Fold this protein.
Amino acid sequence: MIKASLLRNELNTSFRLYKRLLENGMHPDNYTLPYILKACAYMESFRLGELVHGHCLQLGFLFDSFVGNTLIMMYSLFGNMENARYVFDEMPTHCVISWTVLISGYAKIGDIDLARVTFDEAPVKDRGIWGSIISGYVQNNCFKEGLHMFRLMQSTNIIPDEAILVSILGACAHLGTLEIGIWIHKQLNAIKLRSSVKLTTALMDMYCKCGKLDLALKLFDEMPERDTISWNVMISGLAIHGEGQHALRLFSQMETTNIPPDDVTFIAIFTACIHSGMEHEGLNFFNKMFTKYKINPKTEHFICIIDLLSRAGLFQEAKDIINKIPQSCSPKEVAVAWRAFLSACQSHKQIDFAKMAAERLMELENDSGVYVIMSNLYSSTSDVDSLQETRKMMRNRGVDKIPGCSLIEVGGVVNEFVAGEKTNYRIEEIHVVLENLNRQMD
């Protein structure tokens, strides 16, 4: 009954049943306790979790692998890896699940270095452990490292599962490594892995972000069933490729299905309107979002509309939208909106609006980008005094411009270049080629 209540997400009922069990003088076993610990995690009740942990100690179940692993999982979901590690260290034996949950927990809180140390300590590495470190790297935007771990896994006899391939396709999408993405697509038949909705959607996302929109559309059209994420990825893919009208038509098709759009769908729609200069359509969808679909706008939606209006030269309207951003939003989120507004002001040389936006940004954060944008803006005008004042402020506040970086895939290997750095081991050869190109162009 406790398990049934948990599966139905009736968490309070699970606890009431557990309380009745104790009141009847009965003792929970290693089957009962994991379900109650999961209920604590899903309820986000750290205090209740500690109390049930106490029961586990009193009843001597801390040494049980089922109970111990669930305790590690619970504390990991709370982000309390100190307690998770304590439970792990107290367990007399560790199975592969223990290591997997611990690695995933460290990755979840962003401590990918400790996750890697834990991975290296694991005496036996099965597919779950490899998957936890690969997905951990990808979740923490360490895409190159994720691909490196995938290559290391390939040197073993372990065959990747759907979760690992979805993570790697996500890394390929961010890095633009089309060759690896295509290789994975071809491998699906070789390892006899069924193309599920999740896996096909990951392939579509990879092809969209690597510039192969036609292949993404082909996959989308061939899908026997689609979920909201599938529609979102395809609409977004069309949007970033400037196919705004096609994206809106696809959204109309989505409305005829039984799959309702979510907040991410509208971000994709706004992106389509931004890249295709459809400001009026974007405003109509903005109103439709909360009138028809009852979706409250988030910061991301406000930022999209601000960007849309600013690009269309409607600066006063964009400023009014910024002032409507809920006070519950963090200063960091508000700063993103002002930064989008400032960038548009620079493009259209709107000095007065740009000054106002820059002042608000300087109040919210100490970001070099603000000063650089204003410096570039003044450089394009005859306002020499403001230009010198901005550069003086940069020196006085010790603000440095963050160097730009770029990534390029050559022969299946991702190479990273950072402005001003010479860390690439073939940098001298690269400079020779560049000099030859310059001479030919001259």
About this structure: The first strand starts at residue 405 and ends at 410. Residues 37 and 51 are 10 Å apart (CA to CA). The beta strands are 405-410, 413-418. The longest helix spans residues 331-347.
